[in-house]
Specification:
The protein is an alpha+beta fold. It has 2 domains: 31 residues; 124 residues, Lipocalin (Beta Barrel), CATH 2.40.128.120. It is built from 1 helix and 9 strands. The protein has an 8-stranded antiparallel beta barrel with strand order 1-2-3-5-6-7-8-9. The longest helix is centred in the N-terminal third of the chain and has 28 residues. The chain starts with a helix and ends with a strand.
């Protein structure tokens, strides 16, 4: 009976030590990147049903707040960039507002991912966007997006200021 209790105690202690080592790895060696802050965001339209959107990139200024793996934020569309070099810059009172909700998916053996559901509060209607991004580093996110605006889709890059 004494041997059974010694084995039980040894197993419990080794389990606690293993859990502590995993905790150290998760919290200190491979922590979740903090993405709270201001981000310059560019959407590059690759496919759209609305011809005037073709060859136009949309640029936003976004503010994010991260709490654990949950992310909330807001932002404004600040300019439209045509590939021929012309720009439409929105004055502060004319900027199109966005609301953002999403989450951070921590990966240990691959790149972590961030997913956002975005509502653009347009002049005529609300537009929905979904961002699927990889965390490249603490200041750069890159991925794809889809939107209900003319069934458009393309690539997205976010750079932390």
């Amino acid at each position: 009976m004494h041997s059974f209790f010694m084995e039980l105690i040894a197993n419990v202690v080794s389990g606690l030590i293993f859990a502590f080592i995993l905790f150290l790895f998760k919290e200190y060696l491979f922590p979740m990147m903090q993405i709270t802050g201001e981000w310059e965001t560019t959407l590059v339209i690759a496919k759209t049903l609305f011809a005037p959107y073709q060859d136009v990139d949309f640029q936003y200024k976004v503010h994010l707040l991260q709490n654990g793996n949950r992310i909330r934020g807001s932002g404004e569309r600040i300019k439209d960039l045509k590939r021929d070099g012309t720009e439409t810059v929105y004055e502060p009172g004319q900027r199109i507002k966005i609301k953002i909700e999403g989450y951070y998916e921590k990966k240990y053996l691959r790149k972590s991912k961030v997913f956002f559901n975005v509502i653009e509060l347009g002049n005529e209607r609300e537009i929905r966007l979904t961002f699927f991004m990889e965390v490249k580093n603490s200041k750069f996110l890159k991925g794809t997006f889809t939107t209900t605006a003319s069934d458009s889709s393309g690539t997205i890059e976010m750079r932390k200021k």
